[in-house]
Amino acid sequence: MIEMKVRGIAVDPNLKTPAVILTDEEEKRYLPIWIGVAEATAIFIQLNEQVLPRPMTHDLLKNILDTVGAKVAKVLVNDINQNTFFARIFLEVTESGEKYEIDARPSDAIALALRTGSPIFVAEKVVINATIVDKEKYKEEMSEFKKFLENLSPTDFNFPPGPAQET
After folding, report:
1. In a domain, 145, yes or no
2. What is the DSSP string of 51-92?
3. pTM
4. Tens-place pLDDT, residues 21-47
């Protein structure tokens, strides 16, 4: 699992469909997940810390969890199949310690995670199959690594000067 954060909401210019953009901590990989307009609005409102006079669905869900003493431990975008993403919400009941894993759409899981301050994770297989790599950051990192390798010598590893011998 790789922890990611919400980078923002974008609109696909070709499909005219919103997408939530997740990114890793270094912002080298980006994961666009196409979502509905209502979910995009819910995420956008939370990202911009807007307060509405009445609770939206994700606010209501958070309020219910708070009322019954449960918390969102994490959300996980756990799979992709035929361009459809799948997610799980991991709940913990504070008093009893009971744990629950609930199937969810990624957009709902992300909207809830933002409201509860819960971490968002993405399964490695999803990262491998669906993320976009920032090629400029990758090139820069590889260039620095190659420079590092060019200046390396065997003595940098503090190996003994020859094979160990028995006496």
Report:
1. yes
2. --SS--HHHHHHHHHHHHTEEEEEEEEEEEETTEEEEEEEEE
3. 0.78
4. 999 998 888 999 999 999 999 999 999
